[in-house]
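Students often ask what a holo structure prediction actually looks like on paper. The answer is less mysterious than it sounds. You provide the chain, you provide the ligand, and the output is a string of discrete structure tokens encoding the 3D arrangement of the protein together with zinc ion.
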Amino acid sequence: MLNCNDYKLVIISLLWVKLLDKYVKILKDKNIKITPQRLVVLEYLDKNWTHPTADEIYCHLKKKNPSLSKTTVYNALETLDRHRIIQSLTISGSELRYDLDHGMHHHFYCRKCGAIIDIELKCPNIEKMKQYGHEVEEIHGYIKGICKNCLKKRKEK
Ligand SMILES: [Zn+2]
Ligand SMILES: [Zn+2]
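The corresponding structure tokens follow.
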């Protein structure tokens, strides 16, 4: 017989699996092994569209999963990136920033607050690449400046 707490645990894990269905499918579609670490990393990126660093992701996940190691998180990110499930950006310097949207889009980096904002711009260079016969998989436009929130704050001062 399961006691009351066991039931609770079963229900929680069923709910968790259900919630993660979406991420299980993403991994299955790419034929890569489904691991709890990869699932929680995907879930985090899906809930935080801020282009976080590996360290930010690790520190956050560590709170809920104390046994999680830094290496596992870094490896999970590297694998997801290599399989083009997520993309990594070097916009803010040497530290990679991660993005669950692996489609072609550009990024705006605010030098004041460090925010990285998605920019949907049609890139005319993709069409031009066709004449060379190459297939373009990624194109990164890094635009830097001061974001509108910081500009607003500056004016209010
Ligand atoms: Zn800003
Ligand atoms: Zn992005």
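Residues 51, 99, 101, 105, 107, 118 surround zinc ion (ligand 2) (CB under 6 Å).
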